Amino acid sequence: MDGSFLPWSIKLRQRLLEEYPLPDGIETIRDDVLLEPKWILDFANVEAISASTKISQNGKRILDLENSIDHSNLQPESPDIPPEDLLAISGSLTATVVSNTRLTPPTHWQDVRHLTLTATSQHLYCPGDTLTVYPKNFPSDVTQFLKIMNWLPIADSPLKFIPTSSVALSSHTSSPLHNPPSPSDLTLRKLLTNYLDIISIPRRSFFSQLAHFTDDPFHRERLLEFTNPEYIDELYDYTTRPRRSILEVLQEFESVHIPWQHVCSIIPFMRGRQFSIASGGRLKTVEYALTKLSAIRNSQEAAPIKELHGKRSGSQKDHARFELLIAIVKYRTVIKRIRQGVCTRYIASLQPGQQLSVTLQKGALSISKTDSDKPVIMVGPGTGVAPMRALIYERLVWQKETMQESTSGQKGGDTQMRELKGNTRPTDMLFFGCRNSQADFFFKQEWETLKKEKVMLDVFPAFSRDQVRCLFRGSTSS
């Protein structure tokens, strides 16, 4: 797409300047000019400022301060998992992990997780709604980034944002972080862990900024080549095709030293990932989940989860419950390196009892209770079956409520109820596609259970890797 868009945008700019020339004395800003960011970082206290005298004025290198610190004491040995501190996200709710179960066999190439979360207050949601999970970077990647940039000596020093002249002259006064931590918690390590996407694939603008922070002529020339629209294919082959990350780019261009004061204007911010909610109807209540758990598991297995809910304040009826179906992204690229999704890698590390900040968003399914008397055709291949599962269970509740309302206050209500159950209830259809019936037929047992319960649902699965492929020659029939 960039191969077509970039040449067009250059011509558009030229044409606009022809039609609307700039006033006398004003010139266009050259592409090789580094613009001043709106915000920069600074030390939050006097002690840290005195230590910064060991740093060159442009913030590119740390000198003898690097040799005076014992790095082995900076990061004690610990499991390589993200910290469990909650992120301050506007409008978020605190969710607790109840279970994080792998649904696919260990021998299957893909790890698909069934994640169950609860919140200690009631939150209404409908089929099709999504839950946004906000990932964190792993300590090993953050430490590697700090080492590459020579920032380890100041990695945990308290920092603050200060506006530059461009912000001082405008009415914009908010921090570059939408939900900034308290001043005492703002450090380079916290920024790289919770806010900056150091594992993302870099864009053209990233390379143009890096070219300002290297003294190596060869590296500078190479970085500028990636910004040239004529070499857009080469940029694609270097970044997108092998999924090369910002961290890996900085490892290769070792002469680049980003000023730590400008890191938030160079490294993109991490965004949350949305996942369709897979729970609906009776699955939305913690009370039902505990009843179901007791029926299918022995008391020793059920006890820890019951204890987890027992520690929460309030009645279980006041708790919200969410289920997600998530495929963990992990694969090997054309350059034989293993890639992992930033968010799904974080999700795979979550343990029961752990808390995280999530947000709810409305979805696109427009089916409501008024449609409960009409049959529905659902198509949900792979993890796309999640919102369909939510809809199936939600419609069961809607249909029950509709039948109760239609028979309420009428004579012979029981007879009419039986007639509605036997004759007028619609038969929904779910078309589900996956690779193997024994590996990724998600919720197979649930569909069988619903069938035994006389639920009007027909499931039509298709297994692409289980089919027998035949080649017919000289015949139009098969």
Task: Describe this structure as you would to a colleague.
It is a single chain. The chain has 3 domains: 2-68 and 136-266, NADPH-cytochrome p450 Reductase, Chain A, domain 3 (Up-down Bundle), CATH 1.20.990.10; 93-135 and 273-361, Beta Barrel (Elongation Factor Tu (Ef-tu), domain 3), CATH 2.40.30.10; 369-463, Rossmann fold. A hairpin with a 5-residue loop joins β8 and β9 (338-340). The chain has 478 residues and is of the alpha+beta class. The longest helix is centred in the last third of the chain and has 22 residues, at 386-407. It contains 16 helices and 13 strands. The radius of gyration is 28 Å and the shape is elongated. The strands form 4 sheets. It has a 6-stranded antiparallel beta sheet, with helices on one face.
Indicate the topology.
Elements: H1 2-19, E1 39-43, H2 46-51, E2 93-102, E3 112-119, E4 130-133, H3 139-148, E5 159-163, H4 165-168, H5 188-194, H6 204-210, H7 217-225, H8 232-238, H9 246-252, H10 263-266, E6 273-276, H11 286-296, H12 299-310, E7 320-327, E8 330-332, E9 338-340, H13 342-348, E10 355-361, E11 377-379, H14 386-407, H15 413-424, E12 428-434, H16 444-452, E13 457-463
Parallel strand pairs: 11-12, 12-13
Antiparallel strand pairs: 1-5, 2-3, 2-10, 3-7, 4-6, 4-10, 8-9
Helix pairs in contact: 3-5, 11-12
Number of helices: 16
Domain unit count: 3
Strand content: 15-25%
Top-tier CATH class of the largest domain: Mainly Alpha
Question: From the coordinates shown, what is the CATH architecture of the largest domain?
Answer: Up-down Bundle
Evaluate the radius of gyration: 28 Å
Q: What is the helix/strand order?
A: HEHEEEHEHHHHHHHEHHEEEHEEHHEHE
Oligomer: single chain
Task: Classify the helix fraction into a percent range.
Answer: 25-40%
Number-wise, the strands total 13
Q: Tell me, rounded to a whole number, the average pLDDT.
A: 82
Secondary-structure content class: alpha+beta
In the CATH hierarchy, the third-tier topology of the largest domain is known as NADPH-cytochrome p450 Reductase, Chain A, domain 3
- Tell me the name of the CATH homologous superfamily of the largest domain: NADPH-cytochrome p450 Reductase, Chain A, domain 3
Shape by Cα distribution: elongated
- End-to-end distance, in Å? 41 Å
- Largest sheet at a glance? 6 strands, antiparallel
Residue runs with pLDDT of under 50 for 5 or more positions: 50-76, 296-307, 309-314, 415-422, 470-478
Strand order of the largest sheet: 6-4-10-2-3-7
